[in-house]
């Protein structure tokens, strides 16, 4: 861990706020002090994924607790995001560090051009010595606003920027083999695979009640990153310095897989399918076993109202989702393509129809 150069650090709302729910300037400053120390002299490049926008916006809007309805959550996020970034900007200015705000949604990163631009922006901010502060764009997000307090977002950003390490900061100093508030429970120092947590009962609620994440979402994020070849440290915010220095703290998740194409990880874990294509048995075998593109001849039916470029599920005849991909046609175009060869379609409809419905480069297998 000590040799990690590019690191993504994720901090949750409960680590940045007061008991009443507002931003705690002292806690923000303490975190920034740690990040600035490890950035100095180019020792490390750090991307900060920070929750807290909704929590920061509660008090200014006269809200005593996080609202349940989406409209008020988004209103709080709109007010709070400005306050959150202003606090980081002021805190980083004490160290001569510039802050770059990056707001993302799943759509920004599953589509080719958006994904490329997000990666390019983060790389450029790092090369210019700025601290990227990433958050989900809660003001425009829909289902994504309940995305796990940015834990999964942090795992995907770590993959996007080719990070050497992901550090998940919480109000708990690691994964325990039981309720950490009870005597006799022990910290799990290392996780090498799912079997290491098979005996652990993990609750979902955080302490502060201002975020949406808990230990469940953090472990899920750690598994996503580890499966993509990125080691993960899950610890408390007060131990951030130890994590960045490579000292023993929290729970260390060993990488369990190899890196895949960035965009495919986003497609698998962050996209929301806008429809579904049911395939015949031959097409299922071709797509899943031989990793081929999906052609019109293999489609049995279509569901949903999507446009070209949207993510869709690919299902077998039993309705089980076997893959997810970015479709090249609008939903209304597909019925006349079903079961027909691309050569036939090109003769009848023109050369624009002599192409895949989902290209293999835009496709991720869910059940290999």
Question: What is the straight-line distance between the termini?
Answer: 32 Å
- Could you give a short account of the major beta sheet? 8 strands, mixed
Strand content: 15-25%
Strand arrangement within the widest β-sheet reads 3-4-2-1-5-7-8-6
So what's the CATH class of the largest domain?
Alpha Beta
Mean pLDDT figure: 88
- From the helix content, strand content and strand pairing, which structural class follows? alpha/beta
Order of helices and strands: EHEHHEHHEHEEHEHEHEHEEEHE
For this structure, the CATH topology of the largest domain is Carbamate kinase
Query: So what's the oligomer here?
Result: single chain
**Helical fraction:** 25-40%
The CATH superfamily label of the largest domain reads Acetylglutamate kinase-like
Enzyme class: transferase
EC number: 2.7.2.11
Catalytic activity: L-glutamate + ATP = L-glutamyl 5-phosphate + ADP
Binding site for ATP: 10, 170-171, 212-218
